[in-house]
Amino acid sequence: MLHIGGLRTALFAYLLAKQTKGSFLLRIEDTDQERSVEGAIENILRTLHWAGLPPDEGVLLEKGSVVQRGSKGPYIQSERLDLYRKYADELLASGKAYPCFCTSDRLDRMRKDQQAHKQAPMYDRKCLGIPKEESAKRIAAGEKYVIRLEVPRSSTVTFTDDIRGFVSFEGSTIDDQVLLKSDGFPTYHLAHVVDDHLMDIDIVIRGEEWLSSLPKHLLLFEYLGWKAPRYAHVPLLLNADRSKLSKRQGDVAAEDYKAKGYLPEALLNFLVLLGWNPGTEQELFSLPELIDAFSIERVSKAGAIFDHEKLDWIQGQWIRKCAPEKFLERILPYLKKDLPVASKDPEILAKALLIQERLVLLPEAPETLRFFYEEPTVTMELLANPKQKLTPELVEEILPQLRSILESVDAKEWNRATLEVRLRGLVETKGYKLGQVLWPLRAALTGKPYSPGAYEVAEALGRGKTLQRIENCIGK
């Protein structure tokens, strides 16, 4: 399923494509068949569409079905095997690659021996010296083999990465990478080089864990006579302890954040700031603003901490920015599921607006609104708030006065402004602090320690329900 880091990479690619009037293309790299997950392609596409990053070309989602559109297809690598075989054979013929007949058992023993001697695990080139005639006979006899890249060990591979700057790799440290596996499927290394060339990809944006593989890819472009694209290796996403973001320590699938109720605008805004610095104090960016402002040159080399508190802050800011009708539209599915009575309330918009300033995650809406539709459970522990210097005795003194004041307000005058004037009058007359009056009123009406303000709640509940709930508290 689409990793949250993959969504960030997709966002960077999307922004650059739109800045340059290019195409945002989705290619499915499924050559590692053992890791293929059923439904993953649909998941990637649904997530990109939800995030507002629909592909222009390649593998697309149309009316719920996966299709391929564009002149460079097919765009699913498992449907391009003949192409990879063609170029692997070219590399064999030119002496830039060779067949390897080593078994998995032998390779495992080789790696364990290298580790025991504290050597970097690399293929020992046992098959490099096999004469071509012998290799051909063994292949004809049906012996299993892979095709490996032959790296010139005395060479130095250099490149200027869009983020890392100048990088250099000694040939003696570069492994003879497998290019084509015994099942006929290519590895990522060969497949992406072939596809990036044939699909006219001009910049490859990917995680920094691929930086060590860059020299192999540059050699392949050179051996095949092609110009290499630009490369930009983005910093890893890290946990707070600076370990690599992993499923063991939190959610890593992009769809997990959708399920939790994060807005796509908020998630993209958060992700773009993981590694990219706009160079200004601005923190909130819409997608059109990002298309104008983003630059790969301002992406940092350092790993980016995935700060959940910052994500929640950005989420809150985007919820506040929602137009009222749009906000209601977004919480309505959750209300229909968990508080159906609210979804049918003709006055739901006014009530929803009261929680918009306080809501963080969309699925919290039903519970946050529940007190409007169900009688709350109110305890003296909630009413007698020490922070407001409210004792049980003071609560019992104030509640009847609240009832008396509110009973004097006519139904026609029942609005926030009138309620505020009357209750402030009580504060001034009796010498209470404002919080000592408003806290027990709000707690009596909602049964919650956190909720919209007392005036707003009383106005939305109406005169009858407000007085009834105060009476219930007095009765207890």
Task: Explain how this protein is built.
The chain is mainly alpha-helical and 476 residues long. It has helices at 4-19, 40-51, 81-93, 104-116, 132-140, 188-198, 214-223, 254-260, 264-272, 287-293, 308-321, 324-338, 340-343, 348-356, 365-369, 380-383, 392-407, 416-430, 434-446, 454-461, 463-475; strands at 25-26, 57-62, 65-69, 97-100, 146-149, 156-161, 165-170, 178-180, 203-207, 230-234, 237-238, 304-305. A three-stranded mixed β-sheet has the order 1-2-3. The protein starts with a helix and ends with a helix.
Keywords:
single chain, 476 residues, mainly alpha, Rossmann fold, three-stranded mixed beta sheet, three-stranded antiparallel beta sheet, 21 helices, 47% helix, elongated
Through-space gap between termini: 53 Å
Sequence stretches where pLDDT stays below 50 over 5 or more residues = none
Q: Please state the CA-atom Rg, rounded to the nearest Å.
A: 32 Å
CATH topology of the largest domain: Rossmann fold
Query: Which structural class should the secondary elements be placed in?
Result: mainly alpha
What's the pLDDT, averaged over the residues? 94
Number of strands: 12
Count of folded domains: 4
Q: Order of strands across the widest beta sheet? A: 1-2-3
Largest sheet: 3 strands, mixed
Strand content: 5-15%
Shape: elongated
What does the secondary structure layout of this molecule look like, with pairings?
Layout: H1 4-19, E1 25-26, H2 40-51, E2 57-62, E3 65-69, H3 81-93, E4 97-100, H4 104-116, H5 132-140, E5 146-149, E6 156-161, E7 165-170, E8 178-180, H6 188-198, E9 203-207, H7 214-223, E10 230-234, E11 237-238, H8 254-260, H9 264-272, H10 287-293, E12 304-305, H11 308-321, H12 324-338, H13 340-343, H14 348-356, H15 365-369, H16 380-383, H17 392-407, H18 416-430, H19 434-446, H20 454-461, H21 463-475
Parallel strand pairs: 1-2, 9-10, 11-12
Antiparallel strand pairs: 2-3, 4-5, 5-8, 6-7
Helix pairs in contact: 1-10, 6-7, 9-11, 12-14, 17-18, 17-19, 17-21, 18-20, 19-20
